[in-house]
Each structure stands twice: as structure tokens, then as C-alpha cells.
Amino acid sequence: MTVLRIPLLVLFVLGLAGCVGYQPVPLYKLDSGNPGIPTQKNGPAVLLGPVQVADYLQRETLLQRQPDGSLKPSVDERWAGSLEADIDQVLMRQLAWRLDTQRLALAPATAGFSPDVQILLSITRFDSGPQQPAVLEAQWRLLDKRGELRDSRLIRLQEAHQGNAADQVRAQSQLLQQLVQQLATAVLPLTKEPQPLAETPRKPAPATPARPKESAEPKIPMAAPVRTDVEVYRF
User: What is the CATH number of the domain that holds 121?
Assistant: First the structure.
């Protein structure tokens, strides 16, 4: 019986080659900055959402904008988790700080939460490239306490970077923070409006007394006196 013996040195070399060949993939998350903790427990009630993110952004890999406008997925860089959820967290933390309120909820809201303002946000572009700046294109709509549309705006923000993936993510994080800054400026006046007065139910008009029905008996015409003083002429 022949026993195959592999020298320990060969196993060591193979293991070392495997370690050298494996390169961990860098993961990136958006930076929410250094927002402070809101101090008002009874601040304005704000409902964020629904927040819609473009379909092409819902993937793990970072997308790189090319000079011709096309998008190419990065080979080595990935998002650490869901980019959509990461965007929601940055927006929530920045809004709570800038509006100084802890009464902030992400749609759909729980039962009983009555917002002073609701923010409907749609992000249609959020990308960059080695030679292309970071660009954020979005639209927001603001609804007041009555659910009426009070503001609607299309925006396009741009931020330069150094070209590498880490600085691209930094630039994109800056764009989100700039977006929240503009949002907070638009939302703040709506949070200071007085509560709408409840409509007082109108009292029903007093009932008009019904008129007595006239008798349905036929009326007998009164007899008129016959004139007897008519002169008669005879010929």
C-alpha cells in the first residue's frame, strides 16, 4: 500500500498563497455628519416619507458615472448594507437635529401619530464617478396639517471630490446633508402655524310650523241679487 505524503512546507506555501490571493472588499456607508441630539421632546411632529429612491441605486455595488454619461458597477467597492436604508437614517438624524425635535417618524407612521408636516421625497439621481462630480437630483413635496400641498421643489446639487471611492462617498454624504438643510428651511415655517380650528357643527334650522290644510269641501257660490229696476219699452 502506497501512502502519499505531502511535505509540510508545501502545505504552508499553498496556505500562504491562498491568504495572499484573498483581498477583502472595502465597504462604505454614508456619513451623517455630527448632528446634535434634539432637546425638545414636544417639538413639531414631522413625518418623513414615503422616500422613493431610483431603482438603479438599489444594489450593493457602487456605481461609477462615466464621461459619456453611462454607469458602470465598481468591481472592488460595495455599500455596507442597503443604500436606501442608509439614506433614510441620514435624513432622519439630520432633520431631527436641524428642526430640534424628537417627534420624527418614518413613513408609514404608527396609529395615533398626527404630523404637523409630512415630507414626500423622491431621489432620482445619486451617483458620481472617478472623473465626474457627485450629483444629487430630487424632488420634495410638503403637506400641512390638513394634508394640503404647501410646497413643491425640484433640486440639483453637485459636489466635487478627489476621484477615489472613499472621497466619492464623502461627497455624496455632503449632498444629503445639504438637501436636509434646504428641507429644514422649508419645513420650519409650517411647523409654527397654529392648529386648525375644529369646525363647529351647524345647528339645524328650526322647523317651520306646518300650515293647516284647507278644507277640501267644494265651495258653494253665493247667489247674487237680481236687478228688477230694468225698464221695458213696448212698441
Answer: 3.40.50.10610
Structural domain includes residue 146: yes
Strand partners, 27: 78
Round to whole Å and give the CA distance between 17 and 61.
27
Total domains, the chain: 1
Give me 10's grid cell. 508545501
What region, left, alpha or beta, does residue 100 occupy, with left being phi > 0 and alpha being psi -120 to 50 degrees? left
**What is this structure's pTM?**
0.74
222 assigned to some structural domain: no
| pLDDT tens-digit map of 122-175 | 999 999 999 999 999 999 999 999 999 999 999 999 999 999 999 999 999 999
The reply to whether 210 falls in a domain is: no
Domain range for 181 is 47-191
Alpha carbons 105 and 114: distance in angstroms, whole number: 10
Q: Name residue, grid cell 434646504.
A: 182
| b (16+ CB within 10 A) / e for 214-225 | eeeeeeeeeeee
Q: What distance in Å separates the CA atoms of residue 196 and residue 7, rounded to the nearest whole number?
A: 85
DSSP one-letter code for 80: S
Q: Which residues contact 42 (CB under 8 A, 6 or more apart)?
A: 103
Q: Which cell goes with 197?
A: 380650528
